[in-house]
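Contributing new records

If you add data, match the layout below exactly. Sequence lines come first and carry their own label; structure lines follow with theirs. Keep one chain per record. Anything else will be rejected by the validation script.
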Amino acid sequence: MKKLSVLIAMALLQSPALAGSHKQAVLEHYADLAQAVYEDSLITAKTLQETVNALIAEPTEANLQAARTAWKAARVPYQQSEVYRFGNAIVDDWEGKVNAWPLDEGLIDYVDAGYGENSEENPAYSANVIANEKFVFSGQDVDASEITKELLAEALHELGGVEANVATGYHAIEFLLWGQDLNGTSPGHGERKASDFDTESCSVGNCDRRSAYLRAATDLLVDDLAWMTAQWAEDGAARESVMADVNGGLIAIVTGMGSLSYGELAGERMQLGLLLHDPEEEHDCFSDNTHYSHYYDALGIRNIYLGEYTRVDGGVIKGPSLSSLVAKASAEADTALKAGLDATMAAMSELVKRATEDGEAYDQMIGEGNNAGNAQVQKAIDSLTAQTEKINAVVAALKLEPIEFEGSDSLDDPDAVFE
């Protein structure tokens, strides 16, 4: 993937006002925010786990809706954590377990005939683990007779090195709760029935294995989030890595902000889908929850710059921030970036309003011919790219050395997208 060259800290800050204890306090608070956001992700995942267990025990439409509501609630803190991915290797190496996308859903369960049976890129494209206790992948037998966390995590996830073989995490669970969204860029999300989990009156067969898969995937999500929460505790490896070197810690903060802002969110998650007008490039494509996922990703960037986070219980955490460091070096750069962050959040809020109040889901917004919807999405993308330039100005004001943010062909070389 191409990268956008930017300025990031590689040398000691020169101003005495920015030295030593202030920077250390900023890093400590950055780690505290990480621990809080992952802990909230774990708390909400445990609530999801409870609703999934209730659905499996009593597969009613009301219980299915409760599980869907809990899944959406679980996305709120997790999306705010994604800014920690870039710049923190321990997070980036782990992230694919919980938030990998897009996925070839035919690996997991039944799909519509229009999905097709084969893919040159993925031999497991339509393996349908739920319906098949054994299948052949690249000439090798895969034993899926018992659906367990170990099967999902160790045998199926990214099977054969194919990234689309997503067997674990939020999006595998999302697919199981909603099913395929067969509406394209027309209104509507996935419409799986609760009877898909009813072993006594099973809609389509294999309800026992479908329930086992949903339970295993949800239990695994809880395990993975518990592990990451522990990495940010007082003796956790992620916290220790950040605190080990002041300049390295500041690099992690700015890298997370710039890479998520530009290459990942503006590029891979938004501009690419808009260029292709393709709902398959929508982040939460089964549930039509993408407007919120993008909003909370953007909010996560703002959180770590300002050093504040609102927890799921309503409590607010505030402390020493990167903004406070920047303001001492250049009040102008700090003010400009805060204005850029506000502009991005305003643009994201417009996407949320369009989805929740006007009834136009994100996949409709990016649809070909929807000029107004396309323009609204493009405005958010442009806000993110402008925000990234203001991050450049911030690190330049601190007289720091260059590294690279994540880039995206969709932004850096759009013609390559269509090759």
